[in-house]
């Protein structure tokens, strides 16, 4: 109070001209501050763009009808698979190497034996067809999706939701979480759409170069519009995280909320400063004790481990057609290539185990069903090309990297994810974070591995947005 009184007396001691000048300066400074705050909060979007990915020239019109689809198989498909499996040659693993050199061939033989003699693909096709499948033509491509409506009940709010997978997963990753989301959660229930990224599974592969996450985002926005949804929620991890983020950037007015279980890389001076100070004074840079535990030692966890686990990314981001040649023709090679990720990306400690810890979180039926989606559709090469299209140039220079995300956002940070992004980093790009949860357990394939944890976090996020 004494300080205010001194300032008041000093102001009154000035002549009228200087008083007006001081008031004007204060008003101008306040206005500048208000303008900066307003510009930061102002919702920005990125261009929607356009594309044509079908074979040949773009026609004058495109069929926009939605058709039912059913996963099918035949005895000939299974016979061909078994014959190829029987011709497989194996290389003996090094002693006590676990999964450090890749998929351990001793355990691979056990997986393949189960695949050859016990796995029932026809039974799993029936499981896949448990939910309604559809296809529709968008930008020249047959886009596959499942559409699950909840049972009709009184006094419940039904909210549309799109779930987007990544690599080397598929729409099947969400079969464990779907029952949890389509059941009543304190009055909230979801109508769920799970598309296959073009080039993955039952979605047609692009015929032209350039199909990246921005193109996929536009295709999926068209899909939601075609289904009659003007507003909806989005959830994704891996490539699904980037695609859904791009969707929210393109049409923020349509996205009621964005929920992610993998956060993209962030950089800048604030990140560098927090890496220098964080291990010693974490509270000064907004780190929690758990952030420190997950981030440090930084080079071991965020440089060396990333280098050890991303060899696939470098070849798929440069020469995907070469990378896919062998695994596209060999079912056992394909299984090893895909299932190794379900081992190490679930928990890096699984590298120490002879069986890669695969059956600790997943059943062989579920794992092999995902492999069979790639095998029967011959989509491994086209799925790999998605890396090439997104990594052709510096992703940091793309328009989506220069524009923030302004829709309500929820984040589930699982402890075994390859890269940890603290809340203090995330908020530099995501400007409207409603929830950020340090999850107690789980890794990269969250919906597949920890469906209940992910469903609970997503529902609590939606309730905050809906103010339930």
From TrEMBL:
Topological type in the membrane: Single-pass type III membrane protein
Entry's Gene Ontology molecular function annotations: cis-stilbene-oxide hydrolase activity
Keyword hit for Transmembrane: yes
Keyword match Plastid: no
Catalytic residues (positions): 238, 387, 444
One GO-annotated biological process of the protein: response to toxic substance
Broad EC category: hydrolase
Name the UniProt record assigns to this protein: Epoxide hydrolase
Source organism phylogeny: Eukaryota, Metazoa, Chordata, Craniata, Vertebrata
């Amino acid at each position: 109070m004494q300080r205010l009184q001194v300032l008041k007396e000093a102001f009154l001691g000035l002549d009228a001209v200087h008083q007006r000048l001081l008031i004007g300066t204060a008003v101008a400074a306040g206005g500048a501050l208000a303008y900066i705050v307003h510009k930061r909060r102002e919702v920005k979007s990125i261009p929607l763009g356009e594309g044509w990915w079908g074979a040949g020239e773009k026609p004058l019109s495109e069929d926009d009808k939605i058709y039912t689809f059913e996963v099918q198989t035949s005895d000939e498909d299974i016979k061909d698979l078994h014959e190829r499996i029987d011709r497989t040659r194996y290389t003996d693993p090094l002693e006590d190497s676990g999964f450090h050199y890749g998929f351990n061939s001793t355990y691979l033989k056990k997986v393949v034996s189960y695949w050859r003699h016990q796995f029932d693909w026809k039974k799993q096709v029936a499981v896949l067809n448990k939910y309604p499948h559809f296809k529709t033509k968008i930008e020249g491509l047959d886009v596959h999706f499942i559409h699950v409506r909840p049972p009709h009940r009184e006094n419940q709010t039904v909210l549309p939701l799109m779930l987007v997978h990544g690599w080397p997963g598929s729409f099947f990753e969400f079969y464990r979480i779907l029952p949890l989301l389509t059941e009543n959660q304190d009055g909230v229930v979801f109508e769920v759409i799970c598309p296959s990224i073009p080039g993955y599974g039952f979605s047609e592969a692009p015929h032209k170069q350039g199909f990246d996450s921005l193109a996929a985002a536009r295709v999926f926005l068209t899909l939601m519009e075609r289904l009659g949804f003007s507003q909806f929620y989005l959830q994704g991890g891996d490539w699904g995280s980037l695609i859904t983020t791009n969707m929210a950037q393109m049409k923020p007015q349509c996205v009621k909320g964005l929920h992610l279980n993998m956060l993209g890389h962030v950089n800048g001076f604030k990140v560098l400063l927090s890496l220098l100070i964080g291990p010693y004074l974490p509270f000064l840079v907004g780190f929690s004790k758990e952030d420190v535990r997950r981030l440090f030692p930084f080079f071991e966890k965020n440089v060396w481990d990333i280098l050890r686990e991303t060899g696939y990314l470098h070849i798929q981001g440069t020469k995907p057609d070469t990378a896919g040649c062998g695994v596209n023709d060999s079912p056992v090679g394909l299984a090893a290539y895909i299932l190794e990720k379900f081992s190490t990306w679930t928990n890096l400690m699984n590298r120490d185990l002879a069986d890669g810890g695969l059956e600790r979180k997943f059943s062989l039926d579920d794992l092999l069903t995902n492999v069979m989606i790639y095998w029967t559709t011959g989509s491994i090469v086209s799925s790999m090309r998605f890396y090439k299209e997104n990594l052709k140039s510096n992703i940091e220079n793309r328009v989506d990297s220069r524009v923030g995300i302004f829709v309500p956002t929820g984040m589930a940070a699982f402890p075994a994810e390859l890269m940890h992004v603290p809340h203090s980093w995330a908020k530099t790009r995501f400007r409207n974070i409603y929830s950020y949860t340090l999850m107690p357990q789980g890794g990269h394939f969250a919906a597949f591995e920890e469906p209940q944890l992910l469903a609970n976090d997503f529902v609590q996020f939606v309730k905050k947005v809906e103010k339930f």
